[in-house]
Amino acid sequence: MKEDNNREQELREENNELDVEEMKSSLGSKMSNFWYFYKWQTIVGVILVIGIIVSLLQLADNTRPDAAIMYVGPSYLTVTDKKTIGESAQTYMIDYNGDGEKVLTLLDINVVTASGELAAYAYQMNAEAQKRFTTEVVAGDSLIYILEKSFYDILVEQNCLAKLSDVLDADMIPEGSDEYGAQVKDLPFFTQEGFLAFPDDAYVCIRSAPDDSKPNYGRTLEYWNSNRVLFRSVFAYRSK
Protein backbone atom coordinates (compact mmCIF):
# COMPACT_ATOMS: atom_id res chain seq x y z
CA MET A 1 0.00 0.00 0.00
CA LYS A 2 2.80 2.34 0.94
CA GLU A 3 4.60 1.60 -2.31
CA ASP A 4 1.41 2.29 -4.27
CA ASN A 5 1.03 5.65 -2.52
CA ASN A 6 4.63 6.60 -3.27
CA ARG A 7 4.21 5.60 -6.90
CA GLU A 8 0.99 7.64 -7.14
CA GLN A 9 2.78 10.66 -5.65
CA GLU A 10 5.61 10.31 -8.14
CA LEU A 11 3.14 10.16 -11.04
CA ARG A 12 1.42 13.31 -9.80
CA GLU A 13 4.73 15.17 -9.58
CA GLU A 14 5.68 14.01 -13.07
CA ASN A 15 2.29 15.14 -14.41
CA ASN A 16 2.67 18.52 -12.70
CA GLU A 17 6.11 18.98 -14.21
CA LEU A 18 4.75 18.07 -17.64
CA ASP A 19 1.85 20.52 -17.19
CA VAL A 20 4.27 23.32 -16.26
CA GLU A 21 6.49 22.56 -19.24
CA GLU A 22 3.47 22.50 -21.53
CA MET A 23 2.25 25.84 -20.15
CA LYS A 24 5.70 27.38 -20.64
CA SER A 25 5.89 26.01 -24.14
CA SER A 26 2.37 27.21 -24.95
CA LEU A 27 2.99 30.65 -23.49
CA GLY A 28 6.30 30.97 -25.34
CA SER A 29 4.63 29.94 -28.57
CA LYS A 30 1.83 32.48 -28.09
CA MET A 31 4.29 35.26 -27.31
CA SER A 32 6.39 34.30 -30.31
CA ASN A 33 3.35 34.35 -32.57
CA PHE A 34 2.12 37.64 -31.13
CA TRP A 35 5.53 39.26 -31.64
CA TYR A 36 5.71 37.90 -35.19
CA PHE A 37 2.34 39.32 -36.21
CA TYR A 38 2.22 42.47 -34.05
CA LYS A 39 5.85 43.48 -33.63
CA TRP A 40 5.66 46.91 -35.27
CA GLN A 41 2.25 47.70 -33.80
CA THR A 42 3.69 46.98 -30.36
CA ILE A 43 6.78 49.10 -30.94
CA VAL A 44 4.72 52.04 -32.24
CA GLY A 45 2.30 51.68 -29.33
CA VAL A 46 5.13 51.78 -26.79
CA ILE A 47 6.62 54.86 -28.46
CA LEU A 48 3.23 56.60 -28.41
CA VAL A 49 2.71 55.81 -24.74
CA ILE A 50 6.18 57.13 -23.88
CA GLY A 51 5.49 60.28 -25.93
CA ILE A 52 2.18 60.86 -24.14
CA ILE A 53 3.82 60.43 -20.74
CA VAL A 54 6.62 62.85 -21.63
CA SER A 55 4.12 65.40 -22.96
CA LEU A 56 2.01 65.17 -19.81
CA LEU A 57 5.08 65.66 -17.64
CA GLN A 58 6.11 68.69 -19.69
CA LEU A 59 2.61 70.18 -19.43
CA ALA A 60 2.59 69.65 -15.69
CA ASP A 61 5.90 71.49 -15.43
CA ASN A 62 4.94 74.25 -17.87
CA THR A 63 4.82 77.67 -16.20
CA ARG A 64 2.73 80.36 -17.86
CA PRO A 65 4.96 83.13 -19.23
CA ASP A 66 4.54 86.80 -18.38
CA ALA A 67 6.36 87.74 -21.60
CA ALA A 68 7.83 85.83 -24.50
CA ILE A 69 10.55 86.56 -27.04
CA MET A 70 11.14 84.87 -30.36
CA TYR A 71 14.64 85.15 -31.82
CA VAL A 72 15.28 84.22 -35.45
CA GLY A 73 18.82 84.55 -36.72
CA PRO A 74 22.20 82.92 -37.33
CA SER A 75 23.59 83.23 -33.80
CA TYR A 76 23.28 80.24 -31.49
CA LEU A 77 22.00 80.86 -27.97
CA THR A 78 23.47 78.52 -25.38
CA VAL A 79 21.57 77.16 -22.37
CA THR A 80 23.58 79.58 -20.21
CA ASP A 81 22.63 82.50 -22.48
CA LYS A 82 18.93 81.68 -22.17
CA LYS A 83 19.13 81.28 -18.41
CA THR A 84 20.97 84.60 -18.01
CA ILE A 85 18.56 86.40 -20.36
CA GLY A 86 15.57 85.09 -18.42
CA GLU A 87 17.02 86.16 -15.09
CA SER A 88 18.09 89.61 -16.35
CA ALA A 89 14.71 90.30 -17.92
CA GLN A 90 12.83 89.77 -14.65
CA THR A 91 13.90 93.24 -13.50
CA TYR A 92 11.98 94.82 -16.38
CA MET A 93 8.86 92.64 -16.30
CA ILE A 94 5.57 92.49 -14.42
CA ASP A 95 3.80 89.44 -13.02
CA TYR A 96 0.74 89.85 -15.21
CA ASN A 97 -0.78 86.43 -14.46
CA GLY A 98 -0.40 86.82 -10.69
CA ASP A 99 1.30 83.49 -10.04
CA GLY A 100 4.05 85.07 -7.94
CA GLU A 101 6.75 84.66 -10.58
CA LYS A 102 8.10 86.67 -13.49
CA VAL A 103 8.71 84.24 -16.30
CA LEU A 104 10.18 85.00 -19.73
CA THR A 105 10.11 82.31 -22.39
CA LEU A 106 12.62 82.51 -25.22
CA LEU A 107 12.18 80.66 -28.50
CA ASP A 108 15.29 80.68 -30.66
CA ILE A 109 15.17 79.62 -34.31
CA ASN A 110 18.50 79.35 -36.10
CA VAL A 111 18.66 80.20 -39.80
CA VAL A 112 21.30 80.21 -42.52
CA THR A 113 21.96 83.61 -44.05
CA ALA A 114 23.37 83.85 -47.56
CA SER A 115 23.09 85.94 -50.68
CA GLY A 116 23.83 85.63 -54.39
CA GLU A 117 24.30 82.08 -55.63
CA LEU A 118 23.89 80.65 -52.13
CA ALA A 119 20.52 82.31 -51.55
CA ALA A 120 18.55 79.34 -52.95
CA TYR A 121 20.53 76.93 -50.78
CA ALA A 122 19.85 79.05 -47.70
CA TYR A 123 16.15 79.15 -48.54
CA GLN A 124 15.96 75.36 -48.65
CA MET A 125 17.91 75.02 -45.41
CA ASN A 126 15.59 77.49 -43.73
CA ALA A 127 12.34 75.80 -44.79
CA GLU A 128 11.81 74.18 -41.39
CA ALA A 129 12.81 77.37 -39.58
CA GLN A 130 10.24 79.31 -41.61
CA LYS A 131 7.51 76.85 -40.62
CA ARG A 132 8.35 77.29 -36.94
CA PHE A 133 8.53 81.05 -37.40
CA THR A 134 5.11 81.19 -39.08
CA THR A 135 3.52 78.93 -36.47
CA GLU A 136 4.80 81.09 -33.63
CA VAL A 137 3.59 84.32 -35.25
CA VAL A 138 0.15 82.85 -35.88
CA ALA A 139 -0.45 80.94 -32.65
CA GLY A 140 2.52 81.08 -30.27
CA ASP A 141 3.16 82.97 -27.03
CA SER A 142 5.92 85.20 -28.40
CA LEU A 143 4.99 88.84 -28.97
CA ILE A 144 8.43 90.46 -28.81
CA TYR A 145 10.61 89.56 -31.78
CA ILE A 146 14.36 89.81 -32.39
CA LEU A 147 14.72 89.06 -36.07
CA GLU A 148 17.22 88.71 -38.88
CA LYS A 149 16.41 91.30 -41.57
CA SER A 150 14.60 89.01 -44.03
CA PHE A 151 12.23 87.71 -41.34
CA TYR A 152 11.64 91.23 -40.08
CA ASP A 153 10.73 92.29 -43.62
CA ILE A 154 8.19 89.46 -43.86
CA LEU A 155 6.29 90.71 -40.80
CA VAL A 156 6.45 94.31 -42.00
CA GLU A 157 4.96 93.29 -45.36
CA GLN A 158 2.23 91.28 -43.64
CA ASN A 159 1.38 94.22 -41.38
CA CYS A 160 1.92 92.12 -38.25
CA LEU A 161 3.98 94.63 -36.26
CA ALA A 162 3.12 97.64 -34.13
CA LYS A 163 4.67 100.96 -35.08
CA LEU A 164 7.31 102.06 -32.59
CA SER A 165 5.62 105.46 -32.34
CA ASP A 166 2.41 103.75 -31.16
CA VAL A 167 4.14 101.84 -28.37
CA LEU A 168 7.04 104.06 -27.26
CA ASP A 169 7.60 107.64 -26.20
CA ALA A 170 9.40 109.71 -28.82
CA ASP A 171 12.60 109.99 -26.76
CA MET A 172 12.81 106.17 -26.46
CA ILE A 173 13.17 105.61 -30.21
CA PRO A 174 16.81 105.59 -31.39
CA GLU A 175 17.70 107.95 -34.21
CA GLY A 176 17.60 106.25 -37.59
CA SER A 177 15.26 103.45 -36.44
CA ASP A 178 12.86 101.84 -38.87
CA GLU A 179 9.14 102.52 -38.49
CA TYR A 180 8.51 99.14 -36.89
CA GLY A 181 11.80 98.19 -35.29
CA ALA A 182 15.28 99.18 -34.20
CA GLN A 183 18.54 97.30 -34.50
CA VAL A 184 20.24 95.69 -31.52
CA LYS A 185 23.37 97.80 -32.02
CA ASP A 186 21.35 100.97 -31.33
CA LEU A 187 19.90 99.73 -28.04
CA PRO A 188 22.13 99.89 -24.92
CA PHE A 189 19.87 97.27 -23.31
CA PHE A 190 21.73 94.62 -25.31
CA THR A 191 25.06 95.41 -23.65
CA GLN A 192 23.85 93.53 -20.59
CA GLU A 193 25.02 90.03 -19.75
CA GLY A 194 23.16 87.39 -21.73
CA PHE A 195 21.70 89.87 -24.20
CA LEU A 196 25.14 90.27 -25.78
CA ALA A 197 24.48 86.95 -27.52
CA PHE A 198 22.12 88.60 -30.02
CA PRO A 199 23.66 89.84 -33.30
CA ASP A 200 24.03 93.61 -33.71
CA ASP A 201 22.09 93.78 -36.98
CA ALA A 202 18.97 91.98 -35.70
CA TYR A 203 15.76 94.01 -35.52
CA VAL A 204 13.77 94.35 -32.28
CA CYS A 205 10.02 94.72 -32.75
CA ILE A 206 6.68 93.82 -31.18
CA ARG A 207 3.52 92.19 -32.51
CA SER A 208 0.62 94.53 -33.11
CA ALA A 209 -1.90 94.66 -30.26
CA PRO A 210 -5.06 92.56 -30.39
CA ASP A 211 -7.96 94.65 -31.61
CA ASP A 212 -11.71 94.05 -31.66
CA SER A 213 -11.79 94.88 -35.35
CA LYS A 214 -9.21 92.19 -36.21
CA PRO A 215 -8.60 88.55 -35.29
CA ASN A 216 -6.80 88.69 -31.93
CA TYR A 217 -4.49 85.78 -32.88
CA GLY A 218 -5.21 83.99 -29.60
CA ARG A 219 -3.63 86.49 -27.19
CA THR A 220 -5.38 88.80 -24.79
CA LEU A 221 -4.78 92.53 -24.59
CA GLU A 222 -3.63 92.03 -20.97
CA TYR A 223 -0.92 89.62 -22.09
CA TRP A 224 0.13 91.97 -24.91
CA ASN A 225 0.41 94.84 -22.39
CA SER A 226 2.62 92.68 -20.18
CA ASN A 227 4.96 92.17 -23.14
CA ARG A 228 4.73 95.88 -23.92
CA VAL A 229 6.14 96.68 -20.46
CA LEU A 230 9.28 94.66 -21.22
CA PHE A 231 9.49 96.06 -24.75
CA ARG A 232 9.37 99.65 -23.49
CA SER A 233 12.05 98.84 -20.92
CA VAL A 234 14.32 97.55 -23.70
CA PHE A 235 14.09 100.91 -25.48
CA ALA A 236 14.10 103.09 -22.33
CA TYR A 237 17.23 101.47 -20.89
CA ARG A 238 20.35 103.62 -20.69
CA SER A 239 23.68 102.03 -19.86
CA LYS A 240 25.13 103.02 -16.50
Helix content: 40-55%
Average pLDDT taken over every residue: 82
Kindly provide the radius of gyration, computed on alpha-carbon positions and rounded to a whole number of angstroms.
Answer: 30 Å
Q: Strand sequence of the main sheet, in spatial order?
A: 2-1-3-5-4
Tell me the distance between the termini: 107 Å
Number of strands: 5
Order of secondary-structure elements? HEHEHHEHHEEH
Biggest beta sheet summary: 5 strands, mixed
Walkthrough of the structure:
This protein is an alpha/beta fold and 240 residues long. It is built from 7 helices and 5 strands. It has helices at residues 2-60, 79-89, 119-125, 127-139, 149-157, 164-167, 221-236, and strands spanning 67-73, 104-110, 144-147, 182-183, 203-206. The protein has a 5-stranded mixed beta sheet with strand order 2-1-3-5-4, with helices on both faces. Helix 2 (79-89) links the parallel strand 1 and strand 2 (104-110). The N and C termini lie far apart (107 Å). 22% of the residues are buried.
